[in-house]
Fold this sequence. Notes:
Blueprint: E1 7-11, H1 16-32, E2 35-42, H2 44-50, H3 62-83, E3 92-98, H4 101-111, E4 116-121, H5 128-132, H6 135-142, E5 147-151
Parallel strand pairs: 1-2, 1-4, 2-3, 4-5
Amino acid sequence: MTDLFKKILVPTDNSENAKEAFKCALKLAEKHDSTIHVISVVNIGYLEEAGKFESNHFKLPHSYVENIIKEKTKETEEFVRKNTVNYRGGEIARHIRKGHPVTEIISVAREKEVDLIVMGTHGRSGLSHPFMGSVAERVVRKAPCPVLTVKSKKLKIKAA
């Protein structure tokens, strides 16, 4: 029998939901001898929008963006280290991207030809959903492979 999940992509924002999804991916990877690809995205578009104020030509300094990427890399390394203490599976590759989360997640999924994306969902509904949007929902719609969404058991989110 051919293993279906040889390459698993796990997007992370270092949240509790991402941690739960990562744990799920680790279990699958141990069972299927899979490679896990962890992706963290520095949302540059969001940072630039936050800094626009009245100017239509705002651009973040290159050094500022590079510092954010270094910090995201450090956070991702720490996230992987903390959550793989007893892991006995295959390789874990890390990818730090800058751009829009959905676009970058889909891009890595295609580039690495992953078989499954495992990601956390914040479980927003009601009024907060249309305003906040859902990265997980958009990834599900655009992904070139199956997507498993995992909601943290520890978080209790009420609809607004």
